[in-house]
Automatic annotation (TrEMBL):
Transmembrane segments: none annotated. Residues 40-353 form the Schlafen group 3-like DNA/RNA helicase domain. Pfam families: SLFN-g3_helicase. The lineage of its organism: Bacteria, Bacillati, Bacillota, Bacilli, Lactobacillales. This is Schlafen group 3-like DNA/RNA helicase domain-containing protein. It comes from the Bacteria.
Length: 354
């Protein structure tokens, strides 16, 4: 079992035949469009755990090797890898450290990329965007983004843009995306799409994966499959404290195991601790991580509850998930409902004041 995040996203990780073919397809696509005087886009669609980031990591590594190859169309190209999540960005920068073809400065957040290029009056050649569903779809003056849409601005400054997108991971009003909204932008240019479907993150039976899909997509609670625990540790706890003990045990055994929670509990970024309390369970929310180490790899965070701000898109070995007050079962039905009035993350529905 891989016990650090860099192993899970390493460009040295062996790809499947499908992933390898996809990397080659994107490189060929990029090569065809690199010398045009207009942009081109390649979009990879896929649910969580389908290996999107692994493909991008291997792809960028190959592109950066090609840029050192004379007589290559990629020679000395100006390329960037963008992700709008600070914790995932830390992982990529850690990966870049020991690999000579990868430089940490080429891994950036989108706003920094846009503002730096404008300041230098330069353009990029190839831009890879991980977690494109986290791109800002409106101005965010607090974070120094004054344009209308980050994807539009990135494409304006690039020759070829490769991005991954999962509509089920859209988190806030200021990053409001659908497949249709995305394609209104990407389809303005020469474009291609690819759909990744194989589930890597969950080594579970297809019946259990179907159960999760029914729960998350259709809000239906089906009977738990008989083979739910085959090659996969799936349990439902009535007691959050008992679940915490199991996660601590797993963390001691294999590492990268954490408690996570949905919204619905008091949380304010005011520097203080805010607790999730359910029965005997009481733990503080995650704190803003000022270090260069990803939150889940800091030993002390076993005593915190992770959120979308620390673990969205992150690959853990074991996860204990608290389903908070916003999500409840409809009385008398095997269906769940989302109670928006019980969401406590004020950033989720926050509208920018201009």
């Amino acid at each position: 079992m891989q016990n650090n995040a860099t192993d899970k996203l390493s460009p040295l990780k062996k790809l499947t035949a499908e992933q390898e073919a996809l990397v080659n397809q994107i490189i060929n696509f990029t090569n065809q469009h690199l010398n045009n005087n207009f942009p081109a886009t390649f979009t990879i669609y896929g649910d969580a755990g389908t290996g999107k980031s692994v493909v991008l990591s291997a792809l960028f590594d190959q592109i950066q090797k090609l840029r050192q190859t004379k007589n290559s169309n990629f020679y000395q190209t100006n390329n960037y890898f963008l992700v709008n999540h600070p914790e995932i960005l830390k992982v990529y920068k850690q990966i870049a450290g020991p690999l000579p073809e990868l430089l940490k400065k080429n891994f950036q957040r989108p706003t920094s990329f846009i503002n730096q290029l404008d300041k230098k009056q330069k353009e990029a050649d190839i831009v890879i965007i991980d977690e494109a569903h986290l791109l800002l779809s409106k101005p965010d003056h607090y974070n120094n983004f004054y344009h209308d849409n980050q994807l539009v601005e990135i494409i304006k400054r690039s020759k070829v843009v490769i991005l991954v997108f999962d509509p089920y991971q859209v988190l806030k009003m200021k990053t409001l995306w659908t497949k249709e909204r995305l394609e209104r932008i990407t389809h303005l240019y020469p474009h291609k799409e690819y759909y990744l479907k194989h589930q890597f993150r969950m080594n579970a039976s297809s019946d259990l994966i179907d159960w999760f899909n029914s729960f998350t997509e259709n809000k239906i609670i089906k009977p738990i499959p008989d083979n739910a625990t085959k090659n996969y540790d799936f349990r439902i706890f009535n007691d959050a404290e008992e679940m915490r003990k199991e996660i601590v045990k797993r963390n001691n055994e294999v590492g990268l195991s954490r408690i996570l929670s949905t919204s619905g509990y008091p949380s304010t970024l005011d520097g203080g601790k805010h607790y999730i309390q359910e029965g005997k369970f009481k733990m503080p929310w995650d704190q803003y991580n000022y270090t260069s180490t990803p939150w889940a790899e800091i030993p002390e965070t076993i005593n915190e509850v992770g959120s979308i701000y620390t673990c969205q898109g992150f690959d853990l070995n074991y996860t204990g998930i608290i389903i908070g007050p916003p999500i409840s079962q409809i009385p008398g039905q095997n269906k769940i409902q989302v109670n928006l009035d019980k969401i406590t993350d004020i950033e989720m529905f926050k509208k920018e004041k201009i």
